[in-house]
Amino acid sequence: MGEFVFFDWNATAPLAPESLAAMVEAAGVAGANPSSVHRAGRLARRILEDLREELARTLEASPRDVVLTGSGTEANNIAVRAPFVEGHGVLVTSRLEHPSVTRVAEALEREGRAQVHWARVSASGTIDVDDVRACLARGGVRLVALQAVNQETGVAQPLEVVHAECMNIGVPLHVDAVQAFGRTASPLLGTTRTVAAHKLRGPKSIGALVGSCGHRLHPVLLGGAQEKGLRPGTLDPMAAAGFLAALRSVSACQAGFEAQRARRDRLEAAVLALFPGSTVNGDTPSRLAHVSNIALAGLAGAEAVVALDLEGVGVSSGSACSAGTLEPSPVIAAMHDEARAAKHPHEPRADDHGRSCLAGDRSLRASCRTNEEVTRVSNG
Known about the structure:
The chain is of the alpha/beta class. The protein folds into two domains: about 140 residues, Aspartate Aminotransferase, domain 1, CATH 3.90.1150; about 230 residues, 3-Layer(aba) Sandwich (Aspartate Aminotransferase, domain 2). The chain has 13 helices and eleven strands. The strands form three sheets. It has a seven-stranded mixed beta sheet with strand order 2-8-7-6-5-3-4, sandwiched between helices. The chain is globular, with a radius of gyration of 21 Å. The C terminus is likely disordered.
């Protein structure tokens, strides 16, 4: 296999060496079930509790309000469903959200448990705060569920204002902080917050729901009594050890992401020069430094992804959780009207576009090389 340049860090960040080392070290006790009361079980349990305490310290919460989960998706499901298990009301969210929020919202509406207010979205990729404020003023809102940073554009949302409005009237705010945690130094506001290890170079298959929403939480799955009965199933001490190591390196991780800003800006300038008529989605000051979402004029996203992969460059044309669909990105569709969204690089194109795509991608790769715009996996 030849050299490969990995640009797909919003789908998952490569496992950091210190996280891997911690997982290997934990392997000696990871064979025990952390729910067992014998010595081996207690040793495994200690790793989980160390992680819980570190998450609580980092996010300024109580350890008793940290629920360890198998993913950010699971944490979002628990948090968004909670207020509507025992009562009907309004759920405020947006079409910018991760599918683990939007699909739960749609399901709650189908089940007759919630009336969903889809907040308006600007062309720059931020929610309309005035629209959220107006909905809160009408009353009946049981939960506001918004992300801190978008998974496709990297645009940070204006949560400070929303958080203040929610706190003033006692409405819980759930924040999907998966793309923000470990990638920005901004405070992660919210009554409850979702985080995931693999976005800050920890292992996959472990996340957390942090905080207390004022409503009794209910499990999404039924089974054992782990995590106070909120997520049945045996937790993995090895994954917890890797998550803990990533947490302890979070400052260095944040600095590494921020250091990509100048490189990203030069890369975007080179791409836009190569492909006249192309645009950068979410090109606002609030965009995180490491994210670039470019609509390449006249090129189909799926074809561009394949062609770049053949040239040794790994990118995505949308959220990893929506891979395999030919539908336009819901995020881009929310930022623009549906007609324009279909012209963005998610619509299948004819064969001649595929051929021009390949030629263009080779030029793009050469431009990246010439201008030293690439970030290799080994560089972190």
